[in-house]
Design a protein that fits this description.
Oligomer: heterodimer
Helix content of chain B: 55-70%
Distance between the termini of chain A: 15 Å
Number of strands of chain A: 11
CATH architecture of one domain in chain A: 3-Layer(aba) Sandwich
Radius of gyration of chain B: 31 Å
CATH superfamily of one domain in chain A: P-loop containing nucleotide triphosphate hydrolases
Strand order of the largest sheet of chain B: 2-1-3-4
Largest interface: A-B, 34 and 27 residues
CATH topology of one domain in chain A: Rossmann fold
Structural class of chain B: mainly alpha
Distance between the termini of chain B: 39 Å
Number of helices of chain B: 15
Order of helices and strands of chain B: HHHEHEHEHEHHHHHHHHH
Strand order of the largest sheet of chain A: 6-7-8-3-9-10-11
Radius of gyration of chain A: 18 Å
Shape of chain A: globular
Strand content of chain A: 25-35%
Number of strands of chain B: 4
Shape of chain B: elongated
Largest sheet of chain B: 4 strands, mixed
């Protein structure tokens, strides 16, 4: 479980997150839905330990990020809003690097590499350096890097941005399979159809706060809207807070 | 030692391997390192040839036409660096276009005019478009001036006048420089150039691995891994230093290889660099390579962008050479023990000594290198803190 308790964050005196509180339950997919500037990326970066909150605490799998950031990173896979590949390494070298950094060696290393190669259909790219890869190829490699150590928790920041239909479909399929295998997934997105298809729980963020949370259908019902987009607009811009689905906000 | 081995086998070793792969696969950085490392020994070799040519050119070749009319003059001019060829005749312009820097013509009635105190003319032909003309003219006039003074002295003495009355003082300029000293000046540049090579050869790699990674967001990916920040900085420092050190070693080997082709003996330089001396010099540069690398990385991490980092490091690479030159010009006693502990200064002094075949006390080398490594450790610690700055992240 990812537990976010009353975190606040300011950049140059401008509040970005205000008393943010939520839980991401184990083995579920939770979507962080919000407009640009709502604080989604800052929130994900705080969970990953890249930023420090001004107040509040974050625990991943029961470990406090501020106290044991390395411990958290061992059980966390992160796909950022850009891929951050090393263009002079082949896909195999790149994934081997991150598996070894996570302490995987020997036959376990070989097994992990084989698994991600097969699951993410990386065979054609395996021996190629990542320079010149398409957006979809870059995302696949980045996702493979986040998964190579089989993390218990996975965080993705707008993972389907810039992907073509096939790549987005592969990504969605992979996330659902990981969820079914028990991985806890938190992702941010603007794409309503994707949120609706993937998420068990939606957290709607506006101005640094969670303004609504719950299962998508429950949120729509409680907001009195027929689709998620209207629900999002009503919650984010309509000054309405909706509680549903049993996830504390 | 066990701890180091365990780091190399573990995640730290994986990171180190990645940093080396990235650094050495960067063709642009590699070419920059190779080109500069080879360029300076080649330029130095060319410089030595030029210096020898200039030294040889210090001989002025004079064609003396009509020498039979003034045999004493010919005797007085001959000697030193003035090479006099007494010719029966010839066209001055043709002679100047040939082997001669200057032509002096003595006319038929010179001896008679000289005896009668008529100040007979001497004709001096020069080619003012030649770079050697001014020097040759000055050279001849100096020699003639001394001779003229002697003649005047003899004439006034013959008339009972003390020659001192005509000459309140007598100035002689004596150049005490020797070819060996001029050659030493050439070798004195080598330590500074080797240190400069460390900076230039590692510049592109240090910018790429710090500011470059930050712009490509791969640094963020790295910071998301369960790695202590000091290991990240250390791995980057080692990879960057390997490039700078390899560049300096290449320059050193190229320099030693080119030495047989350089006219060192003619310049009065005795080649005293031995294989063990080269090895020692290489080893001495290693701590400095590490310091240069970590300082470059820290500066690049502080810069606002890749381009900003390039600009800052370009300035930085000139700074040590300027600093060393200023110290040389200040005539500070750099041989003192405390100076040997100062990075850059210590290495420069040791390299200078080793290049001319002198020895440096082992304790001095160890203490100075230890001081440099201590600074490297402090810089890595500082860099680890810098990596945790939120401003490093693009969106923060």
């Amino acid at each position: 479980m990812i537990e976010v308790d009353a975190i606040s964050k300011e950049f140059a005196g401008r509040p970005v997150l205000r008393d943010l509180d939520f839980r991401v339950p184990d083995g579920r997919i939770t979507a962080l839905l919000g407009a640009n500037g709502a604080g989604k990326t800052s929130c994900l970066r705080i969970i990953a330990g890249l930023l420090r909150p001004d107040a509040g605490t974050v625990r991943v799998g029961g470990i406090d990020v501020a106290r044991d950031p390395l411990g958290v990173r061992r059980q966390l896979g992160v796909v950022g809003d850009r891929e951050g590949l090393y263009e002079r390494l082949t896909v195999e070298e790149y994934l081997t690097l991150f598996a070894r950094i996570q302490g995987i060696t020997g036959t376990a290393l070989r097994q992990s590499l084989d698994d991600v190669r097969r699951e993410l259909e990386l065979e054609p790219l395996w021996k190629r350096r990542t320079r010149g890869f398409s957006q979809g190829e870059r995302m696949k490699v980045s996702l493979a890097r986040a998964l190579v150590h089989r993390p218990q928790h996975l965080i993705l920041d707008e993972p389907t941005r810039g992907l073509d239909v096939l790549a987005a479909r592969l990504l969605r399929r992979t996330l659902l399979r990981l969820r079914d295998a028990g991985t806890t997934i938190l992702f941010s997105s603007h794409v309503m159809s994707e949120v609706l298809e993937l998420s068990d729980t939606v957290l709607v963020m506006a101005a640094g706060r969670v303004v609504g949370s719950g299962a998508p259908q429950a949120l729509m019902r409680e907001a009195g809207c027929s689709n998620l987009e209207d629900t999002f607009v009503a919650l984010a811009y309509g000054e309405r807070r909706v509680q549903g689905g049993g996830v504390p906000a | 030692m066990n701890r180091l081995a365990s780091i190399l086998r573990g995640p730290g070793g994986a990171l180190l391997y990645k940093e080396f792969l990235e650094a050495w696969r960067d063709r642009r950085a590699l070419w920059m390192a190779i080109c500069f490392s080879l360029m300076f020994p080649v330029m130095l070799a060319a410089g030595s040839v030029f210096m020898l040519k200039k030294h040889t050119e210090e001989d002025t070749r004079l064609a003396l036409l009509g020498a039979a009319h003034a045999p004493l003059l010919e005797d007085r001019l001959r000697g030193g660096s003035l090479k006099v060829d007494a010719l029966d005749g010839g066209d001055p312009a043709a002679l100047l276009a040939g082997d001669y820097d200057i032509v002096l013509s003595v006319q038929d009635g010179f001896a008679e005019g000289y005896r009668n105190f008529e100040a007979p003319p001497l004709y001096l032909y020069i080619d003012s478009s030649s770079s050697a003309a001014v020097r040759a003219q000055r050279h001849l006039q100096e020699r003639l001036g001394v001779f003229r003074q002697l003649v005047v002295q003899q004439r006034v003495i013959a008339r009972g006048v003390a020659p001192q009355l005509l000459a309140p003082w007598h100035l002689e300029v004596r150049d005490v420089s020797t070819p060996s000293r001029r050659g030493a000046m050439l070798l004195a540049m080598v330590p500074g150039l080797l240190i400069l090579t460390l900076f230039v050869a590692s510049l592109a790699t240090s910018v790429d691995t710090s500011a470059g990674e930050r712009e490509r967001l791969s640094l963020e990916t790295l910071l998301l891994q369960p790695l202590p920040a000091w290991q990240v900085i250390l791995a980057k420092t080692l990879a960057v230093a390997s490039m700078g050190w390899a560049g300096a070693l290449l320059a050193l080997v190229a320099l030693v290889s080119l030495m047989p082709l350089m006219p060192l003996a003619e310049l009065g330089i005795q080649q005293a660099t031995t294989a063990s001396g080269v090895l020692t010099m290489g080893l001495l540069l290693l701590p400095l390579a590490l310091l240069v690398a970590v300082v470059q990385i820290l500066l690049a991490l502080r810069s606002r962008s890749f381009k900003d980092a390039q600009t800052q490091l370009s300035i930085l690479q000139v700074a040590p050479v300027v600093l060393l030159m200023m110290l040389d010009m200040s005539r500070a006693e750099l041989g003192g023990f405390l100076w040997q502990l100062v990075p850059l200064v210590g290495q420069q002094q040791w390299l200078k000594a080793l290049l001319v075949g002198e020895t440096v006390p082992l304790m001095t080398l160890l203490a100075g290198s230890g001081a440099t490594l201590l600074l490297v450790a402090v810089a890595i610690r500082f860099g680890a803190t810098a990596l945790q700055r939120e401003s490093l992240l693009s969106a923060a």
